[in-house]
Specification:
67% helix, 327 residues
């Protein structure tokens, strides 16, 4: 890019846009929390379960004291993270969601860089940084932000593993995908979409990379299967089925009718995302457009996760359509 005040090119250090975007994102996420004396929209579920876990010596009790007693069957990773906080859980419920939702910015940047290149990734980082993130801060919601962080890192590492085509490279994405599935009840459907899209549509040969994907899926199944077996033995499989079918299970028509740019908080950049969608479709680069559509229509997936492909599409619009005429 050239300076507005001369013909000399402006040189921007490679990671500077990411650092700036992350810093600004931290500010926008910390402001609403700092303005409130309590965890935003806190229903006390996670605080109570973390307190119960501490009281039981970090061995999951049979029942949580929340709401008069409910099975301690919520996916455990976020609860354990809260319980391990070295201090007041009340403070943890305010601080951790801010830190986790801020960490999503570099995770989006890493995934975007792997899929659409560094220039688009920089713009995607800024787009995601300014996405309203109240959904990840409400209720001291450590699990919701944490599972998405695991999912983004798992998807990024899945693409990298398929490029390297080694069994060792498949271990990390398998573990991350498994952790995502034992962090939030809504994670498995979206995690499946992320992994399938990364495998089939990243431009790599899916016939040659199926061993890596099979290993990733197997590791994720083992990690999540341990928890599934544990909960099933304690409470029966019905408890898991009830939890898994209680999130975002509206009929497809209702999901389509209810969806809009306000769901993402991206009204000002929805047009840019549409430009990016059209450009990638015309270029037959299907991963991000298909990911966008699949997350919209797959039952059980959280529409707010669409902020991720939307931000990447904005990055594509900047790097492929807006920026070239400026150079």
């Amino acid at each position: 890019m050239r300076s507005l005040f001369g013909s000399r090119p402006v040189v921007i250090p490679g990671n500077a846009p990411l650092i700036v975007a992350t810093g600004l994102g931290l500010i926008t996420r910390a402001m609403p929390v700092a303005a409130s004396a309590f965890p935003l929209g806190d229903g006390a579920l996670f605080l109570t379960m973390a307190s119960d876990l501490r009281a039981a010596g970090f061995v999951a009790p049979l029942m949580s004291s929340y709401n008069g007693g409910i099975p301690f069957a919520y996916p455990p990773v976020g609860i354990y993270l809260l319980a391990l906080w070295p201090g007041d859980l009340f403070v943890a419920e305010r601080v951790l969601p801010v830190l986790i939702s801020t960490a999503l910015i570099p995770a989006v940047w890493l995934l975007a860089r792997s899929l659409v290149g560094p220039d688009a990734a920089n713009a995607a980082g800024f787009a995601f940084a300014f996405t309203p993130s109240g959904w990840a801060l409400l209720g001291g919601d450590v699990p919701r932000g944490l599972w998405l962080l695991f999912a983004l890192l798992a998807t990024w590492q899945t693409v990298e593993a398929c490029r390297r085509r080694t069994a060792r490279a498949a271990v990390v994405p398998g573990l991350l995908a498994g952790f995502a599935c034992v962090t939030h009840p809504a994670a498995p459907p979206a995690m499946t979409v992320f992994l399938l899209a990364a495998w089939l549509l990243s431009g790599l040969s899916w016939r040659r990379t199926w061993p890596e994907i099979a290993l990733i899926a197997g590791i994720a199944a083992v990690v999540s299967g341990i928890w599934v077996a544990y909960v099933s033995a304690r409470y029966g499989l019905g408890t898991l089925v009830a939890a898994a079918t209680s999130h975002y299970t509206e009929p497809l028509v209702e999901r389509l009718l209810a969806f809009g740019s306000t769901d993402l908080g991206l009204d000002l950049i929805t047009g840019a995302a549409l430009v990016g969608f059209v450009w990638l479709t015309a270029a037959r680069q299907w991963l991000v457009p298909v990911l966008m559509v699949a997350l919209l229509i797959v039952p059980g997936s959280d529409l707010r996760v669409l902020a991720v492909p939307t931000a990447i599409l904005v990055g594509v619009a900047w790097a492929r359509v807006v920026r070239p005429p400026m150079e």
